[in-house]
Design goal:
Pathway: Cofactor biosynthesis; thiamine diphosphate biosynthesis; 4-methyl-5-(2-phosphoethyl)-thiazole from 5-(2-hydroxyethyl)-4-methylthiazole: step 1/1
Strand order of the largest sheet: 2-1-3-4-5-6-7-8-9
Enzyme class: transferase
Strand content: 5-15%
CATH topology: UDP-N-acetylmuramoyl-L-alanine:D-glutamate ligase
Low-confidence stretches: none
Structural class: alpha/beta
Pfam family, one: HK
Family: Belongs to the Thz kinase family.
Number of domains: 1
GO molecular function: ATP binding; hydroxyethylthiazole kinase activity; magnesium ion binding
Number of strands: 9
Amino acid sequence: MSQSPQELLAALRAAPPLVQCITNYVAMNIAANVLLAAGASPAMVSDAEEAGEFARIAGALTVNIGTLSSPFVSGMRAAIEGAQAAGKPWVLDPVACQATALRRRTAADLVALKPTIIRGNASEILSLAGEASRGQGVDGRDSVTAAEDAARWLAAQTGGVVAVTGESDFVTDGARAARIAGGSPYMPMNTALGCSLTGLCGAYAAVADDPFDATLAALAHFAVAGRRAHEGAQGPGSFAPRFLDALHAVTPEALGAEAEIRALESVGA
């Protein structure tokens, strides 16, 4: 039986999950604050000597390849092994995976380890599926709709959930699919919000029975908070603190009332 975003936010707030975040240098502070504001407990543990051990006690693991290095990759692999051994969900954020040979190789290796959830922009998802993208560096320049078929294919290949995020979001597990609306045009003007959303997907995955439900709830929470924060913001600078406040202020009841989720009747709908 599916769990609603309202139910999952209530569960997250009742027992804040510990989320291990292996993320990039730019995103660490922002991602930690987003998780804290939403109601979760972040831990930026990435060194290979402890990452695997820590993943066994965390509720979920998130892996972000934004600032790649050999030590980071070793920590990612150790953490994924630990999470899988303990039966914990893990989320992959394939930042700019189309940009360089190192990123393409690393992303492909991590996808082969079967993430529970993959969250990326349209250009990243297209690249992971072996299709051409117009992404430049970390900037996605493809539309979400252009990547929906690639997301379905990728979900079928990995057995996990794939989320394509942008002006509106698309989520699929290869069989089910949904679109989520909301947010703010100021969100892409704030660095690392996408990386932070990956962390929030991990937080919801830690309390959900079904990663598809978890992903919908995380994206809906972000979208509702983004729309609320946009009201009264004068630009991206004033939006940022309003967004953290909005993440914290959204109640389970408000999330249930304000989330704009449209389930698609079938694959290809």
